[in-house]
# Entry
Amino acid sequence: MFRYTKIVGLAVILAVSYQIRADEVKNDVEILPPLAPLGEPPIPPDNKQSDAKIELGKMLFFDPRLGGDTSTPCIVCHEPSQGWAFNDGLSRGYPGTVHWRNSQTIINSAYYNKLFWAGAAASLEKQAPSAAKGGVAGNGENDLMEARLALIPEYRKRFKEVFGGEWPLIDDAWRAIASFERTLIQRDTPLDKYLMGDKSALSDEQIRGMDVFTGKGNCIQCHNGALVSDERYYNIGVPSAERWETDGLAQITFRFEMYAKGSNEELYRTAKADPGLYFRSKNKWDKGKFRTPSLRYTMYTAPYMHNGVLHTLEEVVDFYNQGGVDKNGKTTGWPENKSKIIKPLGLTNVEKEDLVAFLKAFSGDEISMERPKLPPYVPLFTKDELEALEK
Ligand code: HEC
Ligand code: HEC
# Structure
């Protein structure tokens, strides 16, 4: 009887600790979702797709009038020729700032349950306003942006057609942008073709690289399923951004973000690395954890990681091969939280080359897009109408 209670007790403790650290506890029992062809993205029932809505969303995505001083439309940090991201380690920011994180590609963002590096937004509809209004991104004000839309007759017409109502509402702008983003997907990569039966879609080198990915390299542990992401959060030991040490503006923005996101005074003054998931959970074991990103479209989205410290896929593979450490063999941010899964891999040069070749199979052709023509402002009243009103 005593032994039985002890066993039950132990089982409860194990179950509870599994719950708490579910991101880390990976045992032989867990069956990893295999790599798979990407299906259609989920469409929320309250924001159905339509051609008119998608076209409107596209215009708004390119339109600088959604933002503060009209210099930061979504497109400037999600530039098609830069992988629909921004090709500097840290993204450009609102004038007078540098962004504190690397800009993510929006290709395939339609598939994630949580957006941003640390999963701070729960849907594309909620992500868009946080981008357009965030202090270091768009820095816009709802009232002002809505007023600007009202002064553009073409938008009044299009919003009415899509959403009804005489005047454009800012929340509808975010819904249209989200609909547009749900069309920015890529499902015809060499890997998708291979997995659907076209065995010639991958080279021999890439097929050997796939074995490294799923075997000795153990990438599949976190980068799995059709999206090539388990959407969990890990500290994999990414070194902190050098610019936070050397570039005054980057340092100021980093500290500002720390404060704005509710870190305590000590963290605000002393942190050398991005606390990541900690900002959402406030659990100390979440410091330095980020969402596993999809590896799709990464051929075009260098540099890599939440702060863009790794410049090429070759550097990424070297980083993992060394066990997730910086050039001095150390982990900068919260080494106590580093995932136990990340350890030196002992890959040979050929295995590393094969793996890099395979990583390229997650990307198809580059997706480009013609810039839409943006409609002009027209005053709400003519001079004569205004004079008549004033009488
Ligand atoms: C000044 C640069 C900048 C502007 C302007 C900007 N973004 Fe971003 N975007 C970023 C950065 C940097 C990140 C990552 C930030 C983070 O994780 O904290 C990001 C992340 C995202 C993501 C998340 C992708 C993922 O994989 O989770 C989406 C979606 C996105 N942006 C869409 C937009 C939209 C829509 C707009 C316009 C309303 C916009 N962005 C404007 C820089 C920018
Ligand atoms: C323990 C889970 C885990 C394992 C195992 C893992 N990754 Fe990652 N991977 C992540 C996380 C989390 C990030 C983002 C980390 C950050 O920015 O701090 C990432 C980022 C990346 C990126 C950068 C993507 C981008 O958009 O910037 C690439 C490329 C990558 N991993 C490839 C690999 C390869 C190749 C392997 C196997 C050698 C591997 N990963 C193993 C979790 C993992």
